[in-house]
Each structure stands twice: as structure tokens, then as C-alpha cells.
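lol forgot to send this yesterday, sorry. C-alpha cells for the thing we talked abt
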């Protein structure tokens, strides 16, 4: 409808339009410069030289005597559910003009609001024209046209006639009456008669022709899911055009299905962001199939993903992603009408990229041989690092932040200290309870410290206020000097069940953020525990699965500073709660679990030593026997082990507490 307003704005002596055809979508994802060309009766709306709409002007400036108003619907016609609230329409606040509406099989009657400020900018306010269609059942037109086939969705295609009988109202409310008016040549093109009334007098009317398109799986989504996927770019399970063969792990997309979704030129490009980023070397069919396959695996909207000609997948949502697809473009196969996509390698954390980041910063561990061991632990126990707000974190890159997090398993803190610095741009300082200093993870992780950069963990005695304050002072100084970001588990201890909300948090973390002018970033460790719970606190992710580390939207001190202390704490807890939907059940690694069990039985090891023995074997490339155990390494003498590698010094120590 904006095109109608623009055309008549450029022709102030025109009273209307005839045969005004809408040629394509105009996606307002950025500023767009439109050109209106008037040549005699002809009018065209262009964007970058490409036609958006065109038609014929009708001499005016008004069309004369207004027609008789259509009779109102029966007062018994059902009231229409709020289309903005239920997700049937995606409009933002300025376009939400519908006050009330009734609709039955005879049509729809609406009351819409005039905005004196916004609508005064145009001769014919385009929002008032647009709002007139907010009661049309575009995805359920069988209500008005019973002969229409099922699973069809209608879109405006042509305006056969638009007439202006009086100047547009500038305040108050308007009535709109919409009635089905037959078809334009075939049932594929339903017509609607629309009247705008002010003070019970028609000031404009329109004969609109819509066109039916197959709804496809996207058009058939529930309204709220359709809005989330198409407008908001949110991942919605099952929102895809392609077929998924679960048995083979492949995605298959046919050219016919893709063509059916291209309702107007530009539809598919807009939905999948084909005009942005890489992937230009891929044909359109293969690119959409690849994006949908990767999106389903990463639980990310396809617009946020790029796939290059080699099948390499990248997305700012997963900054440490190592993931590649196997592509079978239709143009290169015996089936040119379809594309087939599968995983070439599964999604995983790019440990090599993490290692390069630390090497570039000249990280010198106190025990260098422990670096590959802990990097292997990262690959084993962390499946993904996910960002809810990539742009927000990018704006803070290299600036210290305070990560406030839940706590699932013992090893996650150390692994986060390795993986998150390349994402944040700063090394990480973790706050831990004093008693953890002498645990297996505390003793082993201390070897990762770089004396030239200070410790990666600060141990505090929470029960002794003086020691606690000393630890906080150390954290505050590190933040002010920009040396490190800080990670704190705000509940203070490990949970016993997954999907558990963070319900308590000390106000000192908000104070620390204010005092040091440091943004707070919520962090959720996901997938480390089952929702059903466990009997004792866990050292590793349950079943040796892979956790996800999910970073939420940053809270800057300017946002928190005006709030009272209780409200600051509530806002941080709210930010943590926003990450709860990302949690998931552990995905048990049964083969690794079996290997750990076998190592414990064969050599009488505790859980931690058996686990890290296998990680050391993988990090060092040791030969494994038929049970997946490093039998040859274990056959070495105790003295040789201790002298050759500091790992064995820990391994040979007394059982961990």
C-alpha cells in the first residue's frame, strides 16, 4: 500500500489509480531510495532502477461524488482476535492501527486509529491504506472464497481501481469495510472491495486483486511461529521447505518446492538472506538446502548462516564453529531438479582456532604439556559456544566483562576459561571457592596459569568476609586495568539437575559492575545434567556428553545504574532466565563412557584419573588397544612416567579428594 501512497504523492492532481500492478517485494532491511516517475498518465515506482509497481493515474484531484457506503455486517458477526498479539500479522507499533474488527463469511468491518503526527506527512497516509487489510484472512481465504483449494495463501497483486473522494482524515478513527467481490478471471485471483469511511462517508475505495500461492510448510506454520521465523529471524523447529531423511541424515530440496515458495520475486532471497554473505558460488537450490540443513543442526535461523562452495558453515551465533557439509548440487547430479545435503563433519568446537588465539598472545603455561590435554578436554566436553546477541558482544570485543553463570559440573569452569577468551577478546579470571584449590581440578588446572599474566583462578573463602573482600578487590582491579574478564558462578555451588533456574544471586556482582564500569554478560552452561537430577555433584558432563556455553545479551552499567539494588539483581536474574530455553538434555557418549569404565577396572583408577588418562592418550596420539585403552603407555615404569611428563606427577599422586 505504500506504493499507492507514493504514486499519488508524486501526482497531487490525480484522484486515483487504475491497473496498478505490484511487481515484487521491497524488503526494508535497510534504507531504500525509491524513485517515482510520472509520464503523462503512466506512473512507475522504482528502486535502484528496478520496477516495484506501475499503473495509470486518474485525473482529479478528487473523483467526484462518493459512492454509497456498503452495509455494515450483522452485529452478531464474530469479533476478530487481535491479529498482532496472536502472530497473524507481523507489524510494528506504528502500523498497529486496528482498534476493533468483526468478520464473517460476508466480509470484515474494522475500526482503525488515525495518528495525527505520522499520518500528516502524506497526502494519503500509507499506514491507513495498509491497516484496511488487517482484517483480511489471507491465510484462510476459503472463509470468503469456498472454491479455493486448501493450503493456499493470498497476497495483494494488483489494484484494478483506487479512488479518492475527499481529503484523508487527520485525526480520530476510521471505519473500513472489506467485502469479497468475485474473482478476476479465475479462482486464483480473488477480488476484494475496500471502502474507507470517515463520518459515515466514503472518502476512498479500492478494488484489490489478490493472488493465491501454495502456503508451503512456512506458510502453514502456526501464526506465532510464522512471525518468529519470517519476521524476527528466530529458529523455529520444523520451519523449513526441504525434507529431512532422518535415517540417512540428509536434507533434500526440490526445485518445484523452492519455486512454490517464491510467492513474489525476492521472497526466497528475503527469507534466507541470499543477498548477504558468502555462498554466491552455490546455485540457489543447493544454497537454500544447505542453509536449512545447517540451521536445523545448529538450532539457528538460516539467515544467520553462510555456507561456501566447499560446504564450510559459518555463523556469528557460533563463533568457534568447525562444521562442513557434503553438497550434492542438482546441477551436478543425475537429478538436476533437487539438491541433497548431509554432514561431512559434525558441528564441533574449533580447537585449532582456540589454540591459535592463545599462541598469538604468547600464552606460556606453567606446565606447557597440559595445554593440549585441556584443549582435548574442550573438544570432548564442549559441543558449542553460542551467542544470543552476536552484535552486542562484538561491540564489547576486547573490553572486560563480568560473566554471571549457573554451575553444573566441576570441569566446566576451566574449560570456559580456555574457550571463552577467544570469543570475548580478553583472558578470563574465574572466582572459585577456597576448597576447590586442593581438588583434582584445582591442582591440575593450576598448571595452565601463565605467571606473566597472573592466575586464571582466584580462590576465595566465602565464609570469611575479610578474605572475600580481598578477593573481590583483586577482581575489581583486574577489571579496571582491562587485564581480564571475570567469571563467577552466582549460586556458589554445582546444581544437581539440569534445566534448573538461577534463583538467587548476591548484589555484590552488580556493585562490582558499577564500581568498575564493566558490562555484565549472562552465561548459561547447558546440557551437563539431566532434568531428572543426579544424586551427587558431577565432575564431568553427565554421560560424558558435550555442554553448550550460551552467552546472553550484555547488560551495560548505564542500564543498571539507575535501578535500585533489588531491581538490578532482578534484571540480572531475568537476563539469566532468558537463556533457559537453550538448555537441553545431555547427549550421552556411550563409547567414551565404556572406555572410562574399562580403564577404571583394568588399573583401579578413580573417575577423574581414568577420564584424563584417556584425554591424554587422545591429545598425545597414543596407540590404543582393542578396548580403546592406552595399554602401552600404562606399561611404562612409574619412574619413567613421573620424570617424562608433569601430567604423570598428578596422575601418580594420591587419589583426588
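and heres what i got for the seq, position by position
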Amino acid at each position: 500500500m505504500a506504493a499507492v501512497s507514493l504514486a499519488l504523492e508524486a501526482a497531487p492532481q490525480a484522484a486515483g489509480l487504475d491497473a496498478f500492478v505490484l511487481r515484487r517485494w521491497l524488503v526494508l532491511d535497510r534504507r531504500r531510495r525509491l524513485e517515482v516517475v510520472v509520464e503523462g498518465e503512466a506512473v512507475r515506482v522504482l528502486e535502484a532502477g528496478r520496477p516495484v509497481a506501475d499503473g495509470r493515474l486518474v485525473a482529479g484531484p478528487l473523483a467526484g461524488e462518493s459512492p454509497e457506503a456498503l452495509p455494515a455486517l450483522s452485529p452478531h458477526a464474530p469479533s476478530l482476535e487481535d491479529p498482532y498479539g496472536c502472530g497473524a500479522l507481523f507489524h510494528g507499533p506504528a502500523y498497529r492501527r486496528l482498534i476493533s474488527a468483526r468478520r464473517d463469511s460476508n466480509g470484515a468491518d474494522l475500526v482503525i486509529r488515525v495518528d495525527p503526527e505520522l499520518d500528516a506527512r502524506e497526502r494519503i497516509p500509507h499506514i491507513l491504506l495498509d491497516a484496511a487489510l488487517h482484517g483480511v484472512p489471507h491465510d484462510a481465504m476459503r472463509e470468503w472464497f469456498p472454491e479455493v483449494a486448501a493450503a493456499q495463501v493470498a497476497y495483494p497483486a494488483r489494484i484494478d481501481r483506487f479512488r479518492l473522494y475527499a481529503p484523508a482524515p487527520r485525526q480520530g478513527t476510521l471505519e473500513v469495510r472489506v467485502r469479497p467481490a468475485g474473482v478476476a478471471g479465475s479462482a486464483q485471483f480473488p477480488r476484494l472491495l475496500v471502502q474507507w469511511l470517515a463520518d459515515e462517508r466514503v472518502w476512498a475505495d479500492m478494488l484489490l486483486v489478490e493472488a493465491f500461492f501454495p502456503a508451503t510448510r512456512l506458510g502453514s506454520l502456526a501464526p506465532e511461529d510464522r512471525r518468529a521465523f519470517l519476521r524476527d529471524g528466530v529458529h523455529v523447529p520444523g520451519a523449513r521447505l526441504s525434507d529431512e531423511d532422518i535415517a540417512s541424515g540428509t536434507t533434500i530440496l526440490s526445485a518445484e518446492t523452492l519455486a512454490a515458495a517464491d510467492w513474489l520475486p525476492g521472497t526466497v532471497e528475503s527469507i534466507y538472506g541470499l543477498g548477504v554473505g558468502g555462498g554466491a558460488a552455490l546455485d540457489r537450490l543447493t544454497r537454500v538446502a544447505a542453509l536449512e540443513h545447517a540451521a536445523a543442526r545448529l538450532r539457528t535461523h538460516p539467515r544467520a548462516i553462510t555456507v561456501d562452495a566447499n560446504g564450510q558453515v559459518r555463523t556469528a551465533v557460533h563463533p568457534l564453529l568447525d562444521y562442513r557439509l557434503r553438497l550434492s548440487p542438482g546441477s551436478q547430479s543425475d537429478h538436476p531438479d533437487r539438491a541433497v545435503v548431509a554432514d561431512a563433519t559434525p558441528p564441533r568446537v574449533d580447537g585449532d582456532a582456540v589454540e591459535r588465539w592463545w599462541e598469538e598472545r604468547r600464552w606460556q603455561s606453567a606446565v606447557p604439556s597440559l595445554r593440549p590435554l585441556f584443549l582435548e578436554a574442550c573438544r570432548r566436553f564442549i559441543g558449542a559456544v553460542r551467542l544470543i546477541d552476536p552484535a552486542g558482544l562484538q561491540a564489547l570485543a576486547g573490553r572486560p566483562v563480568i560473566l554471571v553463570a549457573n554451575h553444573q559440573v566441576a570441569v566446566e569452569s576451566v574449560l570456559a576459561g580456555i574457550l571463552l577468551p577467544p570469543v570475548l577478546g580478553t583472558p578470563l579470571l574465574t572466582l572459585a571457592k577456597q576448597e576447590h584449590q586442593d581438588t583434582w581440578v584445582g591442582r591440575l588446572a593450576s598448571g595452565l596459569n601463565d605467571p606473566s599474566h597472573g592466575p586464571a583462578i582466584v580462590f576465595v573463602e566465602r565464609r570469611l568476609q575479610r578474605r572475600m573482600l580481598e578477593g573481590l578487590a583483586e577482581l575489581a582491579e583486574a577489571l579496571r586495568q582491562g587485564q581480564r574478564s571475570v567469571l563467577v558462578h552466582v549460586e556458589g555451588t554445582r546444581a544437581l539437575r539440569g534445566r534448573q533456574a538461577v534463583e538467587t544471586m548476591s548484589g555484590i556482582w552488580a556493585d562490582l559492575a558499577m564500581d568498575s564500569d564493566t558490562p555484565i554478560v549472562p552465561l548459561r552452561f547447558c546440557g551437563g545434567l539431566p532434568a531428572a537430577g543426579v544424586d551427587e555433584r558431577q565432575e564431568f558432563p553427565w554421560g560424558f556428553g558435550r555442554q553448550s556455553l550460551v552467552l546472553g545479551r550484555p547488560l551495560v552499567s548505564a542500564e543498571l545504574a539507575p535501578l535500585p539494588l533489588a531491581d538490578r539483581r532482578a534484571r540480572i536474574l531475568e537476563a539469566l532466565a532468558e537463556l533457559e530455553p537453550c538448555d537441553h538434555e545431555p547427549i550421552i557418549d556411550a563409547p567414551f563412557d565404556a572406555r572410562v569404565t574399562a580403564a577404571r577396572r583394568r588399573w583401579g583408577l578413580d573417575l577423574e584419573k581414568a577420564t584424563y588418562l584417556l584425554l591424554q592418550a587422545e591429545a598425545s596420539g597414543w596407540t590404543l588397544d582393542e578396548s580403546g585403552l592406552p595399554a602401552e603407555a600404562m606399561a611404562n615404569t612409574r619412574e619413567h612416567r613421573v620424570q617424562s611428563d608433569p601430567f604423570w606427577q598428578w596422575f601418580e599422586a594420591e587419589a583426588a579428594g
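The chain has a mean pLDDT of 88. anyway ping me if u want another try
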